[in-house]
Amino acid sequence: SYVDTFKEKVRSKGLDKDVKILTNVPDRELLDLYRNCSVFLYTPTGEHYGFGPVEAMASGKPVIASKFGGPSETVLDGETGFIIEDDPKAWSAKISLLMDNTSLRKKMGRKGRKRVEENYTWAAFQKSMAKAIDQIKAKANTT
């Protein structure tokens, strides 16, 4: 499996003590992981949506994600994180940039949190639905 291959790469590089690979994490632990991370990396390509980046932004964390998939719609490149090519050097450069620049990391995290509050909460959904219903009513009244 992909996870086994990744674990083997971590072992072969001698990074066992520095890299922790978790799967099927319970929600309570997941919230702690978001809260305590510095940057959220979302590596899947071709993912239709992906809740991970939105959850990370809700936790005030910048996101680095592949440009091939849903996060390219939720993460604002250069504002709430980075959307990048599937290139290890590009990933490394953006990770280093954010880890070396605390103010940029925090600024992107704040913008990500704001983006989630404005677009991906129940209140935002209800507001969007109310607007759509009002538009349908207005259109119905003109015909």
Q: Would you spell out the secondary-structure blueprint of this structure?
A:
Blueprint: H1 2-12, H2 27-36, E1 40-42, H3 51-58, E2 63-66, H4 71-74, E3 81-84, H5 88-100, H6 102-119, H7 122-142
Parallel strand pairs: 1-2, 2-3
Helix pairs in contact: 3-6
Structure description:
It is a single chain. By secondary structure, the chain is mainly α. Helices cover 59% and strands 8% of the residues. The chain contains 7 helices and 3 strands. The chain has helices at 2-12, 27-36, 51-58, 71-74, 88-100, 102-119, 122-142; strands at 40-42, 63-66, 81-84. The protein has a 3-stranded parallel beta sheet, sandwiched between helices. The longest helix is centred in the C-terminal third of the chain and has 21 residues, at 122-142. The radius of gyration is 18 Å and the shape is elongated. The termini are far apart. 20% of the residues are buried. The mean pLDDT is 92.
What's the β-strand tally? 3
- DSSP summary: helix tally: 7
Helix percent reads 55-70%
Give unreliable regions as ranges: none
Mean pLDDT: 92
Order of helices and strands: HHEHEHEHHH
Question: Strand sequence of the main sheet, in spatial order?
Answer: 1-2-3
Largest beta sheet, briefly?
3 strands, parallel
Please identify the structural class as seen in this structure. mainly alpha
Strand content: 5-15%
Report, as a whole number of angstroms, the end-to-end distance: 57 Å
Radius of gyration, CA atoms, in whole angstroms: 18 Å
Shape estimate: elongated
